[in-house]
Amino acid sequence: MSKVGKKPILIPESVKIDLNPDDNKLVVKGNKGELTRSFDKRIKIDLSDTEINVRRESEEKEIKMLHGLTRALIANMLKGVTDGFSVRLELHGVGYRATITNGDLVLSLGYTHPKIVKKVEGIEFITPAETIIEVHGIDCELVGMVASKIRSSRNPDPYKGKGVKYSNEILRKKAGKALGKAGA
Fold it and tell me: Tell me, what's the pLDDT at 177?
């Protein structure tokens, strides 16, 4: 049995859960918002008052993979509607800065024009400083995708140390071209 899939998920008191067994659709409501997701019908979701258990009917390889994935997705839904998710990004480079205009994120990253990341429903941008961006939301997958999109607007350069990087990302600076022997 899957080590991740067999762990029960405890339901916080402030969360309401509705499960439609016909299409395996789960609706999770909490103080931060509401999330809805449909799961594969081959995975069974057992709902009680205090916990959720995920089980599988067969030992096929694909269903074994779906077992742990389904449990992790449900746990992320519960965490999202109670606490939320956030990703912190840092801008490194001369003149690199981020501002928020009408909910859109405007990035000055050394290009001739600013890069604009449009406002996404369910995502909030916060800039506590000019060189720090925080992406907040209740959907873990959406927060990660938006943060990845922001990072890809100027990937970190290992030679110059410039670019947009995650705050917990470690960048090892590479040495440039080494000079050859003098006179050779």
Answer: 79
